[in-house]
């Protein structure tokens, strides 16, 4: 069984952070832990490309083998706190942003009326270069619109660290890491940039995927006067409170595997009990450590369970129809490829042989305002689990010294009865989702109005539409992007008509 085992490991480890699985040896048992909201992005800081140099520099942004698209890196003096006038509020940190003006139609008339639009990416929880290299759609459509491309790094990530190496030392410093502060950062930087470019009248469209997509949609709602529209891809803005069923995320992952192979689903579902049984004594834990090539002997089987759960979840999220370089090199339809290997084992093979296969910024956000309850049902391929606001609060207080505000996001940005609310006051937002992406269940999946549109693809994965176009893209991806371009063009045309 050695050769098949290594073959399976080689596929599953494409999503790991190193050639060997780094399974932690926990000091105490942990219950099965549902995926922390957007935990996939935990790898970004380790996979993203960053630089410690200040000022401007030329960086080549390339993805999926496409030609490089150069952009320059700049640093904007940003105030620490936009919402108070305390002594620390006016403290300045340098926020990184990237610019590509290759195709920009520069202003020629008074007030910059003839300038091309600004397409701005609202940065996620990681290095901004990484997002630029994986958002090829903006580069692809920039020539058509004569657009200036801007990618803004999120505060407390990448190089945009207000307190340097001491940023994560305490709640006193981390308390400035909130989504509202980040949105204000974007608004101030965009406004200043337009003024410096003599392009005050140029329209702005914001783009974002995953957490960045959430920020893009919220930016359009909060800063209507700054951005004329937003493309929010794979943005689970309804994954809060009691809006979305708590078990929807893991049920969606399970359905992805079941749709490929019932046997594959059954093997994964049956493995958890076997894993617990094997890991019930020291001898079993030693054998499991060797089988999964752990960096050291694990103390609890849950360590391996967490690692496997993450691998299966990531694979479902990035189940793209073409090969992709997202975190690592991925084959087309990686869920299908994984199930092919699992299904290829003899029926009497060891079930575990069929299976072998971070950072503080987001940890802080997930323990303060970004509280997304998740559970697993008995129908899932993962072990059943529950969620408790009280237990989550206690755990966050123990690790971060603060307690979550679980209902703040829906208070600040809304979410309940979103179809009726946004129909009355919202406009110009594209919510794009692929149903292979488990985060889609917390997204907007139906049109709200003529200008708040949901583009849903049955086989799409995590913000697939934002990736570079390739010659192998299926027709439904091509059509989705065509619709997005058409809608954005309509926003810009209407803006110029109104200005005239």
From TrEMBL:
Gene3D superfamilies: alpha/beta hydrolase (3.40.50.1820), Serine carboxypeptidase S28, SKS domain (1.20.120.980). It comes from Urochloa decumbens. It comes from the Eukaryota. InterPro entries: AB_hydrolase_fold, Peptidase_S28, Ser_carbopepase_S28_SKS. GO terms for biological process: proteolysis. This is Lysosomal Pro-X carboxypeptidase. Belongs to the peptidase S28 family. GO terms for molecular function: peptidase activity. Residues 1-24 form the signal peptide. It holds the Pfam family Peptidase_S28. The lineage of its organism: Eukaryota, Viridiplantae, Streptophyta, Embryophyta, Tracheophyta. Keywords: Glycoprotein, Hydrolase, Protease, Signal.
């Amino acid at each position: 069984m050695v050769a098949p085992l290594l073959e399976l490991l080689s596929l599953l480890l494409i999503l790991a952070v190193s050639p060997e699985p780094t399974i932690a040896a926990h000091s105490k048992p942990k219950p099965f832990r549902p995926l922390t909201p957007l935990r996939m992005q935990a790898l970004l800081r380790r996979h993203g490309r960053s630089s410690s140099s200040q000022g401007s520099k030329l960086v080549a942004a390339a993805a999926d083998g496409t030609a490089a698209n150069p952009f320059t890196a700049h640093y904007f003096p940003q105030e620490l706190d936009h919402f108070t006038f305390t002594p620390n509020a006016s403290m300045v940190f340098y926020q990184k942003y990237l610019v590509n003006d290759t195709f920009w139609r520069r202003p020629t008339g008074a007030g910059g009326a003839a300038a091309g639009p600004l397409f701005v990416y609202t940065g996620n929880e990681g290095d901004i270069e990484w997002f630029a290299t994986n958002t090829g759609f903006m580069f692809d459509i920039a020539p058509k619109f004569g657009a200036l491309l801007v990618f803004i790094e999120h505060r407390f990530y990448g190089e945009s660290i207000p307190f340097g190496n001491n940023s994560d030392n305490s709640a006193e410093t981390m308390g400035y890491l909130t989504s509202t502060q980040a949105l204000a950062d974007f608004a101030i930087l965009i406004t200043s940039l337009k003024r410096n470019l003599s392009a005050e009248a140029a329209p702005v469209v914001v783009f974002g995927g995953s957490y960045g997509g959430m920020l893009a949609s919220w930016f359009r709602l909060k800063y209507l006067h700054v951005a004329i529209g937003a493309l929010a891809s794979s943005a689970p803005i309804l994954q809060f409170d009691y809006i979305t069923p708590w078990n929807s995320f893991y049920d969606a992952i399970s359905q992805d595997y079941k749709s490929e192979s019932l046997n594959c689903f059954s093997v994964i579902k049956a493995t958890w009990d076997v894993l617990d049984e094997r890991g019930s004594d020291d001898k079993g834990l030693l054998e499991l450590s060797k089988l999964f090539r752990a960096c050291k002997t694990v103390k609890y089987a849950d360590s391996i369970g967490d690692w496997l759960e993450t691998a299966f979840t990531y694979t479902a999220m990035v189940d793209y129809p073409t090969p992709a370089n997202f975190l690592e090199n991925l084959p087309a339809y990686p869920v299908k490829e994984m199930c092919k290997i699992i299904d290829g084992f003899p029926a009497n093979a060891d079930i575990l042989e069929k299976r072998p296969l971070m950072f503080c910024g987001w940890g802080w956000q997930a323990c303060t305002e970004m509280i997304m309850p998740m559970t697993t049902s008995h129908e899932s391929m993962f072990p059943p689990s529950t969620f408790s606001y009280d237990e989550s609060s206690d755990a966050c207080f123990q690790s971060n010294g603060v307690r979550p505000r679980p209902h703040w996001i829906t208070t600040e940005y809304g979410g309940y009865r979103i179809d009726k609310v946004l129909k009355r006051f919202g406009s110009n937002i594209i919510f794009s989702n692929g149903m292979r992406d488990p985060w889609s269940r917390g997204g907007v999946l139906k049109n709200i109005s003529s200008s708040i549109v949901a583009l849903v693809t049955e086989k799409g994965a995590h913000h697939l539409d934002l990736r570079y176009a390739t010659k192998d893209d299926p027709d439904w991806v091509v059509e989705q992007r065509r619709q997005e371009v058409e809608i954005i063009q309509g926003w810009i045309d209407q803006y110029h008509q109104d200005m005239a």
